[in-house]
């Protein structure tokens, strides 16, 4: 896992800029840096420039994340942030700031405050409990209902109605979005690095 092509250093690497998006594109496995954990109202974000984890805000209501949540390195979504990932079916809470490998199942198209902010949907790649989950359909219909509700209501007490889910799509669409975001990272962000 996470074989980093970098010589040893006494300084901490910013993994957002050191790891490729895919660990194994053929098997649909991506790197994910965990930001938020299932069951929490805290919203953490990785500081893109430095790689540290920052408490962005405490949720505005008691609505908690129904999944763990993170970012794919070396990607740049249309909202000017790394591409987001929901990791579903997690048995035990993941540690914010940790690096995991996740197997892509699909994507939820999402617009937040007028900006495209799509969410890749995945499971932990080495969790035997999730081997039978191969597509979004395997998660069941209620998964989409709950996920839609969360994203369309998690900011209601701040600015209600700002998020709109545009549907759920399969693995091929998810891989296209990941590849597009990796290309956008190279074009729009990589030149800013030291």
Task: Give a structural overview.
The two termini are 26 Å apart. The protein is α+β, with helices and mostly antiparallel strands and 194 residues long. The mean pLDDT is 93. The strands form 2 sheets. It has a 5-stranded mixed β-barrel. Strands 3-4 form a two-stranded antiparallel ribbon. The longest helix has 19 residues. Helix content is 19%, strand content 30%.
Blueprint (SSEs and pairs):
Layout: E1 22-24, E2 29-36, E3 42-46, E4 53-58, E5 68-71, E6 84-87, E7 99-112, E8 115-116, E9 119-124, H1 141-153, H2 156-159, E10 163-169, H3 171-189
Parallel strand pairs: 6-9
Antiparallel strand pairs: 1-2, 2-5, 2-7, 3-4, 5-6, 7-8, 7-9, 7-10
Short key terms for the protein model shown above:
Inorganic Pyrophosphatase, 10 strands, alpha+beta, 194 residues, 3 helices, globular, five-stranded mixed beta barrel
Described by strand count, sense and barrel closure, the largest sheet is: 5 strands, mixed, barrel
Q: Any idea of the CATH topology?
A: Inorganic Pyrophosphatase
Radius of gyration: 16 Å
Structural class: alpha+beta
Hey, roughly how much beta strand do the residues contain?
Answer: 25-35%
- At CATH's second level, what is the architecture? Alpha-Beta Complex
**Averaged pLDDT:** 93
Distance between the termini: 26 Å
Helix content: 10-25%
């Amino acid at each position: 896992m996470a074989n980093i092509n970098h010589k040893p250093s006494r300084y901490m690497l910013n993994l957002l800029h050191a790891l490729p998006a895919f660990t194994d594109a053929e098997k649909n496995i991506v790197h994910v840096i965990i930001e938020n954990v299932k069951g929490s109202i805290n919203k953490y974000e990785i500081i893109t420039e430095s790689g540290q984890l920052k408490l962005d805000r405490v949720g505005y209501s008691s609505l908690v994340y129904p999944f763990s949540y993170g970012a794919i390195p070396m990607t740049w979504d249309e909202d000017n942030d790394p591409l987001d990932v929901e990791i579903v079916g997690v048995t035990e809470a993941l540690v914010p700031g940790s690096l995991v490998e996740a197997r892509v199942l699909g994507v939820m198209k999402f617009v937040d405050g007028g900006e495209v902010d799509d969410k890749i949907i995945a499971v932990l790649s080495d969790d035997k409990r999730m081997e039978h989950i191969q597509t979004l359909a395997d998660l069941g219909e209620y998964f989409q209902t709950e996920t839609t509700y969360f994203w369309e209501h998690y900011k209601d007490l701040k600015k209600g109605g700002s998020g709109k889910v545009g549907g759920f799509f399969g693995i091929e669409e998810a891989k296209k979005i990941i590849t597009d975001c990796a290309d956008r990272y190279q074009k729009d962000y990589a030149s800013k690095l030291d």
